[in-house]
Amino acid sequence: MAFTSFTNLASVVKKYKLLYRENVCEFDLLHQAPASLHEEITLNRLEIPYQNSEIAIGETILFPILKAVWLEFKDFLTLWSHTALELDDILTGYPDYLLASKSDQGKIILGTPFLAVVEAKKDDFTAGWGQCAAEMYAIQQLNKKTDLEILGMVSNGDYWQFAFLKENIFKKCKNNYTIDNLDSIYNFMVSHLKNVLKEFPKK
């Protein structure tokens, strides 16, 4: 089995005895996306057929945004793309993107804790959330720190959905974002990561 064997969010919630909640998730708009990111995303949307595949969505839309967010925290975090992750025989696979703490062993080693996971989905958000939630639970267990709030995201490039996992509470955000409001997407991620990193000792 693998992360992709979970075809909906309910299957993850049921198997791992999580509590499902829905809330509006908002942050004050304190962090605006760099002008260079706006220019890149605008150009990519105009000129590249990114909706053709999940790989194209990831490379053209998701990765540039995640890289811009990561640059705010590059002294503390590493951005991983399609790297192997395994908790057990069931929770295993290749998340599209991960944000994790830097490893003292160097950039080729996955560090913990993991803070965020992102899945690109062409249109099937139902399956996307099954896969993303399974990945969120796996990284929570690998962290061995269940009180650390993990951010999960599913996007088809145009629409972005967010959720959090803390302890045994899976909180799905009611409010979705569109790529036309890039500042809000960028602000959401940066604000969450800043809040989480307040708990980390300075290196």
Would you give an account of this structure?
Helix 1 (9-15) runs parallel beside helix 4 (125-143) and helix 2 (35-47) runs antiparallel to helix 3. The model has no long low-confidence stretch (mean pLDDT 95). The strands form two sheets. Strands 1, 2, 5, 6, 7, 8, 9 and 10 form an eight-stranded mixed β-sheet that branches. Strand 3 (85-86) and strand 4 form a beta hairpin. The protein has helices at 9-15, 35-47, 54-71, 125-143, 182-197, and strands at 19-23, 77-81, 85-86, 92-93, 97-101, 114-120, 150-155, 159-166, 169-173, 177-178. The protein has 203 residues and is of the alpha+beta class.
List the helices and strands and how they pair.
Layout lengths: L8 H7 L3 E5 L11 H13 L6 H18 L5 E5 L3 E2 L5 E2 L3 E5 L12 E7 L4 H19 L6 E6 L3 E8 L2 E5 L3 E2 L3 H16 L6
Helix pairs in contact: 1-4, 2-3
Task: Fill in the keyword field for this structure.
alpha+beta; 23% strand; 203 residues; two-stranded antiparallel sheet; tt1808, chain A; 5 helices; 36% helix; globular
State the helix count: 5
Estimated structural class: alpha+beta
Give the distance, in angstroms, between the N- and C-terminal Cα atoms.
38 Å
Number of domains: 1
CATH class: Alpha Beta
Low-pLDDT sequence parts: none
- Average pLDDT metric: 95
- Looking at the overall shape, the CATH architecture is Alpha-Beta Complex
- H/E element order: HEHHEEEEEHEEEEH
Major sheet details: 8 strands, mixed
Proportion of residues in helical segments: 25-40%
